[in-house]
Specification:
The complex is a heterodimer of chains A (115) and B (113).
Chain A: E1 5-7, E2 10-13, E3 19-24, E4 31-37, E5 43-50, E6 53-56, E7 65-69, E8 75-79, E9 88-95, E10 105-106, E11 110-114
Parallel strand pairs in A: 2-11
Antiparallel strand pairs in A: 1-3, 3-8, 4-5, 4-9, 5-6, 7-8, 9-10, 9-11
Chain B: E1 4-7, E2 10-14, E3 19-25, E4 32-38, E5 45-51, E6 56-59, E7 62-67, E8 72-77, E9 86-92, E10 102-103, E11 107-112
Parallel strand pairs in B: 2-11
Antiparallel strand pairs in B: 1-3, 3-8, 4-5, 4-9, 6-7, 7-8, 9-10, 9-11
Chain lengths: 115, 113
């Protein structure tokens, strides 16, 4: 079946602009995670969704970052007033359930470049 | 919160040799430890995982060992092949209600033919 998809694959924006990143999880997966991967770094947790709720937003770096999930499926990560330090690859992952022991399947990521 | 340290950051081996990557974690409540492989330009993929009630797990040429007392776990790849070349990430999770993963910094493994 189809895996996790993300769009756009690449996004170049100017400092101060808002961007929206989209994630389509695997059908039937109730848990959805956003991670950020900066150059040469590991993956950094941003936010977790179970259904449409976000029980853990602790990884969002600032109030410029927000995310929502609708219909228990598609999720959008929004970054307002982008800064150069926001440049990174943003990865989305989904899993069948919320427990850690459910394998997380990753999307291909969105590479964000803020000029 | 949890902190995961991974070593080495780069590892170069000859084809057929073994490769070992080590990780330490800080939160004794962590009980799930997956390893992900990320090939250049591709998404991370789970290659093996271990739960805290197990000390070792093997899957063909890869194995993971866990020492809960010392709070460290390791990935072992035997008979390495050029296609094993990738970035490997370890991670830890408390595995209670949800699977928030804390990742190590990654190891770039290069297998020379």
């Amino acid at each position: 079946g189809a895996g996790v998809s993300q769009s756009p694959s690449n996004k170049v924006t100017e400092k101060g602009k808002d961007v929206e990143l989209r994630c389509d999880p695997i059908s039937g997966h109730t848990a959805l995670y956003w991670y950020r991967q900066s150059l040469g770094q590991g993956l950094e947790f941003l936010i977790y969704f179970q259904g449409n709720s976000a029980p853990d937003k602790s990884g969002l770096p600032s109030d410029r970052f927000s995310a929502e999930r609708t219909g228990g499926s598609v999720s959008t990560l929004t970054i307002q007033r982008t800064q150069q330090e926001d440049s990174a690859v943003y990865l989305c992952a989904s899993s069948l359930g919320g427990g850690a022991w459910n394998e997380q399947f990753f999307g291909p990521g969105t590479r964000l470049t803020v000029l | 919160g949890e902190n995961v340290e991974q070593h080495p950051s780069t590892l170069s081996v000859q084809e057929g040799d073994s490769a070992v990557i080590k990780c330490t974690y800080s939160d004794s409540a962590s009980n799930y430890f997956p390893w992900y492989k990320q090939e250049l330009g591709k998404r991370p993929q789970l290659i093996i995982d271990i739960r805290s009630n197990v000390g070792e797990k093997k899957d063909q040429r890869i194995a993971v060992t866990l020492n809960k007392t010392a709070k460290h776990f390791s990935l072992h790849i035997t008979e390495t092949q050029p296609e094993d070349s990738a970035v490997y990430f370890c991670a830890a999770s408390k595995g209670t209600s949800y699977g928030k993963l804390t990742f190590g910094q990654g190891t770039i493994l290069t297998v020379h033919p």
